[in-house]
Q: What sequence folds into this?
């Protein structure tokens, strides 16, 4: 084992001890109902900001390191898409969700559509989260592998076990303590990274590289299809970002949660800029590495002493934990709180906490298994997780919030069809992380089938109680937009297909029809109330 490996392991184990202590201290905060799942709704804006920064910006930073090594400066759009998501959640989502006292998205679906929907959405949501956790843990595991020779699989297993040890004690308070500590580690990581960058390649080296490899400095070098997919995925995720909601909605008030999200959006900027700089720096110094996440430790070994490299990768470790901890805990909450309530509807809070801790152990085991199955491709797990969760729960969440006539049968059917069609499309594409069947991302297929099923299922269900509201203006706008997008898909089929935009434009058309359906088809009671109001007003 090299000196670099010794420093990384010593710092990582020392930090692990700090986290375990933090988990024990967090137990003292579990004093009343809701303390375990949403910290008793006691977070201030700074705790929310630190939590969201660790969740979104930490994982984004790791992705940008990899993307910028491969594609250059265009990786910045991934970070911009993340920032857009944060600000939309802050301004449009936090206040109404906080007023509903929401805990999980699967809980929202279940409360509206019954126990079957609750259990199914909770299970699908839960099993997607360890996939995201594995994808980010691979970044630190790559460094461990380079410096120590420990396998990637074992490194992921160490990460998973650590998450379990400190999360099971204090729940949401454990996350708050950890994310606050992580934030200061991020600062040290950036300082060390900038030192390395100015040593090699420096500004002059960057200019020389730009002249020799101009494609790395094209704003769209990663490809328009990929950039659009980033924005599309983050925009769809706005309504489904359960881990972020669970942390932000733990705030004292809607206003405090919103302020924390806005602060987190601003805090994302150094993660984006530094991620691009360090990734390109690694591309200059180590041009032929297998992956960007392997190149970064090799690059730092060339320019920095072992203690500083250890500090940098302790920051990467914090990024992995900052994403993995909320994902694992939120997934365990869906399984232990929501799916368990579907099976045991009379369960008390203490029992649900017990089930959640058991679920956390199960998801830890799943994370290790996933790491054994396919450790070398973090993007593969990300695509699979997005496809599973978003394809199943997107339409039911929209329906729970905006469409009162939706029936339980339609929701359950949409959960099944969206989930299965997304996975089938991924299978038809050979389970490749960047090459999809018919050049369409499986999440667009799954989400589209999800929406179509809930519309058709609701309108044909005999239990549905609806009437047509012809004077709904927004409905005609949605219908017109849907028709226009359908014609665009037909007329420009080849261009959209070649650029990988067919799925996105098709989904946009279906969403337009969905908006029209929500506005056209209203509950009979609402229609009668509207008529009575017009009569009363003369």
A:
């Amino acid at each position: 084992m090299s000196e670099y490996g010794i420093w990384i392991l010593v710092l990582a184990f020392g930090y692990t001890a700090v986290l375990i202590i933090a988990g024990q201290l967090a137990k003292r905060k579990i004093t009343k109902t809701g303390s375990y799942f949403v910290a008793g709704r006691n977070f201030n804006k700074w705790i929310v900001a630190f939590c969201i920064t660790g969740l979104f910006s930490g994982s984004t930073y790791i992705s940008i390191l990899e993307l910028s090594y491969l594609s250059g400066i265009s990786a910045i759009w991934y970070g911009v898409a993340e920032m857009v998501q944060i600000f939309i959640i802050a301004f449009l989502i936090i206040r109404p969700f906080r007023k509903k006292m929401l805990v999980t998205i699967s809980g929202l679906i279940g409360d509206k559509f019954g126990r079957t929907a609750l259990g199914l959405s909770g299970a699908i949501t839960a099993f997607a989260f360890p996939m995201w956790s594995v994808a980010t843990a691979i970044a630190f595991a790559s460094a461990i592998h380079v410096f120590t020779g420990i396998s990637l699989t074992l490194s992921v297993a160490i990460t998973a076990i650590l998450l379990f040890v400190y999360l099971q004690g204090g729940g949401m308070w454990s996350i708050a303590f950890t994310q606050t500590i992580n934030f200061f580690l991020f600062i040290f990581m950036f300082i060390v990274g900038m030192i390395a960058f100015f040593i090699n390649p420096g500004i002059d080296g960057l200019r020389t590289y730009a002249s020799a490899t101009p494609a790395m400095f094209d704003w769209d070098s990663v490809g328009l299809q990929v950039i659009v997919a980033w924005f599309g995925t983050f925009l769809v995720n706005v309504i489904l970002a359960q881990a972020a909601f669970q942390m932000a909605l733990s705030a004292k008030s809607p206003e405090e949660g919103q302020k924390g999200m806005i602060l987190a959006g601003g805090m994302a900027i150094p993660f984006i800029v530094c991620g691009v700089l360090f990734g390109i720096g690694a591309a200059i110094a180590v041009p032929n590495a297998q992956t960007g996440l392997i190149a970064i430790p090799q690059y730092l070994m060339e320019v920095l002493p072992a203690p500083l490299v250890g500090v940098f990768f302790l920051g990467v470790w914090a990024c992995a934990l900052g994403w993995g901890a909320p994902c694992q805990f939120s997934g365990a909450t869906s399984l232990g709180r929501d799916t368990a309530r579907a099976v045991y509807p009379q369960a008390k809070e203490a029992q649900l906490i017990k089930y959640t801790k058991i679920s956390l152990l199960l998801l830890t085991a799943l994370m290790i298994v996933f790491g054994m199955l396919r450790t070398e491709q973090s993007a593969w797990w990300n695509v699979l997780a997005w496809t599973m969760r978003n394809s199943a729960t997107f339409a039911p969440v929209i329906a729970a919030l905006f469409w009162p006539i939706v029936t339980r049968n339609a929701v359950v059917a949409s959960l099944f069809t969206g989930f299965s069609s997304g996975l089938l499309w991924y299978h038809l594409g050979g389970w490749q992380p960047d090459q999809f069947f018919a050049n369409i991302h499986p999440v667009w297929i799954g989400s589209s089938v999800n929406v179509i099923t809930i519309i058709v299922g609701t309108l044909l269900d005999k239990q549905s109680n609806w009437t047509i509201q012809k004077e709904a203006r927004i409905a005609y706008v949605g219908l017109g937009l849907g028709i226009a997008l359908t014609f665009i898909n037909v007329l420009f089929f080849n261009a959209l297909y070649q650029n990988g935009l067919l799925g996105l434009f098709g989904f946009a058309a279906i969403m337009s029809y969905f908006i029209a359906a929500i506005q056209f088809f209203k509950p009979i009671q609402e229609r009668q109330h509207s008529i009575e109001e017009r009569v009363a007003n003369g």
The longest strand covers residues 466-468.
